Structure formats: structure tokens, C-alpha cells
Amino acid sequence: MTHKHSKVILVTGGSRGIGAATALQAAREGYAVAVNYTAQAAAAQAVAAQITGAGGTAITVQADVADEAQVLAMFEQVDASLGRLTALVNNAGVVDISQRLDEMSGQRLRRMFDINVMGSLLCAREAVRRMSTRHGGQGGAIVNVSSAASRLGSPGQYVDYAAAKGAIDAFTLGLAREVAAEGIRVNAVRPGLIETEIHASGGLPDRVRDLAHLVPMQRGGTADEVAQAILWLLSPAASYTTMSLLDVSGGR
């Protein structure tokens, strides 16, 4: 596959949830899509197959974003297979079981920041090296997937996750300013209660249903609703939008 595409997107954590919805929506909007996954190979391949089955272009790329060597190899694979990156969605992230901070292990805290913060920083670094006009690039756009948790704090549930997402917000603001004159826009979406499998991984499979009454709209959101916001931020329609933290949270 040596054909180079004019619109190339990498979606980290693209096998499920918001990542999968974003990959599918990007393909519908003409992107060649790299679907990153850590362990869920079959799920990632199913997303890619859905894209290619509809006439689009997609590859799967395995990498743990917390591991710098794996991130470098992933970006080289995208370069070789699809061409120069024009869009990055930093979606890969984890939650853990509900605990108070005084119950959390150091290992849990390290994992939370390695994946949710370090992973996004490393991927954004590699994207800038390819997109920036300073590096001979043609520009591009980055969307970081933050969370409403960054402003709610998630007490008694996962303040570590909220803190990691707070770091993503600050990083979005800083990087946006850093590369604004180099053809790169950097924004974040902050989803609220969204119906995806991440809640089950944190031991609360009914979390959206249980908390929907706290949302002014009285319901959880869908992965597609978040994907629509991400694709808008990536699109020329958002050409003067950078450094934005876009809440997709039903009013919560």
C-alpha cells in the first residue's frame, strides 16, 4: 500500500466507544483511517473492515500509547501505509474502579497518567513533527478527548482520572498556542456521561443509567454525538477554532 492520501487520520483507542465512532465518521468524511488499539485486535479489525467494506481506506495499528517505542513504530507504520498525517484524535484512555484517593495504589495512579496523559503527549509530539510547517508539513488538526470529569473532579469515584483529564485540558491550551502559527489547530472535547464500554471496565456498567437524572437533558450521550463534535473540530468549518475545550455533556 504505497498510495498516499490527502486526508489521513490516526484515532488512538479506535476499536470501541468514542474512538470507533470517530474512526467511522472520519471515513465517511473522506479520511484514510488508522485505527489504533492496544489489545482488542478483533474489535479494531471489525472497525477497519466496516470502513473498507463501505469503500473507504483503513488500517489497524497496534500500540500501547504509554510506550514511547511503540508510539514511534505506530507513526512510522501510518507514514508508510497511508502517508503524511493530517489529523490526530487522542482518544486512548482508561478509567479504574471507583475508589477514594486514600484507597488508590501507586501502580493505579502511574497507569492512569501513563496512558491518559503521557500517551496523548507522545502522540501529539509525533503528530506535530509531521504536520507543522516548521517540519515541512502541510498543517493539520489535533483533537484531545478530555472529559467533563476535569471540571467536576469525580470525588469518591476517580479523582485520578479527573486529574489526568485536567492535565489534558492544560496541554490542549498550551500546545494550541505553541503551534498556532505552524498550521496546526489543537482542541479538545469534554464528553459527559456517554454510553460506552469504558464504564464496565471501571466496574460500573450501569453508570450512565444511574446518573442520567443528574444531566439537565436527562439522558446519557452517544459515542456518535461525541464523534460529530470531534469531526467538526477537525474540519475546515472550524478553521478559526483552536485552544477550544468543547463540552459535549448534555448540560452537566
Question: What is the topological layout?
Answer:
Layout: E1 8-11, H1 17-28, E2 32-37, H2 41-53, E3 58-62, H3 68-82, E4 87-90, H4 106-131, E5 140-145, H5 149-152, H6 159-179, E6 184-191, H7 198-201, H8 207-211, H9 223-234, E7 245-248
Parallel strand pairs: 1-2, 1-4, 2-3, 4-5, 5-6, 6-7
Helix pairs in contact: 1-2, 1-9, 3-4, 4-6
Protein model, in words:
The protein starts with 7 loop residues before the first strand and ends with a strand. The protein has a single domain, classed as 3-Layer(aba) Sandwich (Rossmann fold), CATH 3.40.50.720. The protein is an alpha/beta fold and 252 residues long. The protein has a 7-stranded parallel β-sheet with strand order 3-2-1-4-5-6-7, sandwiched between helices. Helix 1 (17-28) links the parallel strand 1 and strand 2. It is built from 9 helices and 7 strands; from the N terminus they run βαβαβαβαβααβαααβ.
CATH superfamily: NAD(P)-binding Rossmann-like Domain
- CATH class designation: Alpha Beta
Overall spatial form: globular
Our count of domains comes out at 1
Helix-and-strand structural type: alpha/beta
Strand order of the largest sheet: 3-2-1-4-5-6-7
Largest sheet: 7 strands, parallel
Unreliable stretches covering 5 or more consecutive residues: none
Mean pLDDT: 96
